[in-house]
Amino acid sequence: MSDETRDSGTRDTGLDERVVRALRAPEILAMDFEGRLMAQARAEIARRRATPVRRSWWVTGRVFVTSPLAALAMAAGIAIMAAASTLVVAKRSAGPLTAARDTVEFVRFVLVDSTARSVSVVGDFNGWKRDETPLIAAAKPGVWSVSLPLSPGRHEYAFIVDGQRWVVDPASIASSDEFGTESSVLLVAPSRIGAS
Amino acid sequence: MAISDRELVHGVRSGDLDAFAALVARYRDAYTRFAVRMTGSSLDADDVMQSVWMRAFRNIGSCKNPDRFGAWLYQIVVNECRTFTSRRSQRDSRFIDDSAETLAALEVAEPDVALRDEIQKALDCLPADQREAFVLKHVEELSYDQMAEITGVGVSALKMRVSRACERLRELLEGVHHE
Question: From A28, which residue of chain B is nearest by alpha-carbon distance?
Fold first, then answer.
């Protein structure tokens, strides 16, 4: 610290000494400040670490791009696939499941999580609002899905399980934002299945 | 020997929450006074400092010189206070209510609270950039070089802001501080 900063505030500012003294009176944070802060930090870490746990075989998410009619057929097929204890596999090259639309493609989000009580999807397409797009439980317990019309291009998304658990799709490329929060990347191309 | 800031920063980067807690304990109240003077309220300063620390936690990877963690954190404090100040107009009614409640709660135990309240009101009347410069210079007692590093503002401009702030405060507080 330079000498100039050692000068009396009174002399420098022309203010009364009591004013300067009051201004320089120490301030302390609330007693529970650290507790609240560390709780936030722990929640942040838990959210970051949640992804590997969800890579278990019984928790897997997949994204399909499909036409509305094919979506209906797929919805019926999901229960069969799950009942056969077969993991839902992304049909990355299944041409019949896709159909071009003028400006949007229907994308089916599927999550298999036998422990989930509710699932929603958040992404740039719904403003990352947790309650905006719930997934519907299929007949087979643990299978959740929803179809959404998305414009072609790059989208980022994640699943929210039980209103708080952040689930990154293990089948997609993960992308981290400036704060290190991971989300999944979905590439929607007309007439092509775009999960990457 | 105390663990260095560098070691603690590296610990936080690798996900060590204890290292983060140690940094918080080390710098817990270092910038609180600045935040209180800038926001005008202990409650708002608490909110600002929570944001400051979480921003530091999330962005610890961008702390290029861990040995100077304190200076890096100070920049975040200044920026968060600026953000708060820029939104203050939307929160004016709540701000006044909080101050009134705080004042009422402290009045019995703190005889100087009326003076401090008048001083804070005068500070609040200053433009945000002048208030920031004044508090850094005459409350936190930083040098102009330190202020320039933290705020990103040139020394000449800072001196001008401090000078104008002092002049305005003298006008606002004339007669107030005499018992």
Answer: B29
The DSSP symbol for B112 reads T
Asked whether B165 and B119 are in contact (CB, 8 A), the reply is: no
Contact status, residue A114 vs residue A58, Cβ threshold 8 Å: yes
Name the pLDDT band for B26 (thresholds 50, 70, 90): very high
| Token pair 């006074």: residue | B33
Q: Which chain A residues are Cβ-neighbours of B116 within 8 angstroms?
A: 22, 25
Three-state secondary structure string covering A77-89: HHHHHHHCCCCCC
Q: Which helix (H) or strand (E) holds A147?
A: strand A143-150
Is the ipTM of this structure higher than 0.90? no
> Which residues have a Cβ under 8 Å from the Cβ of B89 and sit 6 or more positions away?
none
pLDDT interval class at A59 (50, 70, 90):
very low
A95-144 residue pLDDT tens: 223 333 456 777 888 888 888 889 999 888 888 888 888 998 877 778 88
Most confident of A6-10, A174-178, B98-102: A174-178
Q: B45–A27: do the CB atoms touch at under 8 Å?
A: yes
Q: Which residues pair with A175 in a beta bridge?
A: A183
Supply A64's token pair.
């399909």
Cβ pair A30:B46 closer than 8 A: yes
Cα–Cα–Cα angle for B150, B156, B162, rounded to 5 degrees: 75
| Neighbour-count burial for B117-135, b at 16+ CB within 10 Å, e otherwise | bbbbebbbebeebbbbbbb
